[in-house]
Request: fold
Amino acid sequence: MNKAEIIKNFDPNQPGLADATIFGLPFNAENSEIIVIPVPWEVTVSYGSGASKGPEAILEASYQVDLMHEEFPELWKLGIYFDDIPKELKKTSKKYKKLVAPIIDLLEAGEVIENHSKHLKNQMIINNACQDMVNWVNERTTYWQNQNKLVVLLGGDHSTPLGYYQALAKKHDKFGILHIDAHLDFRIAYEGFTYSHASIMYNALCLKHIEKIVAVGIRDFCEQEVDVAKKHQKRSKVFTENHLKNNHFNGVNWDKQCDEIIAQLPDKVCISFDIDGLDPTFCPNTGTPVPGGLEFHQATYLMNKLVASGKTIIGFDLVEVAPGDHDDWDGNVGARMLFHMCGALAKSQKINTGQAVKF
Reply:
C-alpha cells in the first residue's frame, strides 16, 4: 500500500500497535517524514544513571499516547519512525561506564589522575569511545538527512547530540540552540572527559555554525561556566530559573518572558531539551535532578511561541529521560514531550499538522 492507503486503512482511535513503530504508527522509514534516532548512551554520567534506557522507555510508553494531539491533530499522518536501536552502541556504553566510576571516585578523593597511570589510560580510552559515539551520531543523522527526512535525536545522556549538531551544520550554515535544562553545561572537559554530558554546550560553542545558545531554566552552574558564558556573551544568553521566577513574582507573565527568550534566537533554531529542565515531579528518575524548573505546559508553550514567531525549527534533541524501577512515569512524560516537539518541528517547517481542536 502507498502512504495514502495506509492512512485510509489505519484507525487512529485504536490502541497503539505494539508491533508498529513509535506511537503505534503503521509507517516505515520510507513513508515517514520524521526519523527519531535513539542513542542509548550514558558513559560519563556523574550522579544518577538510567539515561541509556530512556529511548526504549519512551518507545514503550509511546503506544499509550493518543494520536489526536490538541494542537497538531494531523501530526500522526506525517509518519514518525523510530530508527533501529544501535545495540553495539548500547553495549559499548555499558562497558565503558564501568571504567568511569573509579576515575570519578579518585577525583572526589582529591587525587591527581596523572599520578595514576591506569586511570589516566582509561580516561583516554573513554574519550576515544565517546568520540566514536559522536561520529556515529553524525553519520547516522547525515544518512537520514540525505534521504530528505526531518531528523531528531533521542538520548541517552546530554553528551549524545554533539554529532547531531555537527550533522545539522552540514546542512545549515548558521543556527542557534534553544537549550532547556537545569544545568548550563558549559564545563570544559568535566572530570577529564572531553565529551562529558556536562560539557555539551561548551562543545557546541566550538562549532562556528552555531550563532547563539539561549539557555532557559538554568539553576545549577559553577564558576567556570559563568566565565565561559561571559567570554562568549555575544554567542550565549542565559535565563536562569531565578531570573524567570523573579520576573513572574514581579508581574511579568510567561507569554512576555517567552517573547524575550525567542528574541535572542537567530532565524534557524535547534531545540536541545534536557528533561531535567522540567520540575522533578515530571522526571523524578533523571540523573541529576534539581529543585524548581518549568512546568510541562510552560515548555510546550515556549515551543509554540517559537513556531508562531516565524523562526524555523531545524531539529531537536530530547535527552536524560531515565525510567524508574517501578513505574513508567518518566517514559510517559518523555513520550508526550517527544510527540509535541515533533508537532512543533513539523509546523515550523510549514508542514500541515491540521487545525487545533476546538471544543
The first strand starts at residue 34 and ends at 39. The two ends are 34 Å apart (CA to CA). The chain has a mean pLDDT of 95. Residues 56 and 351 are 28 Å apart (CA to CA).
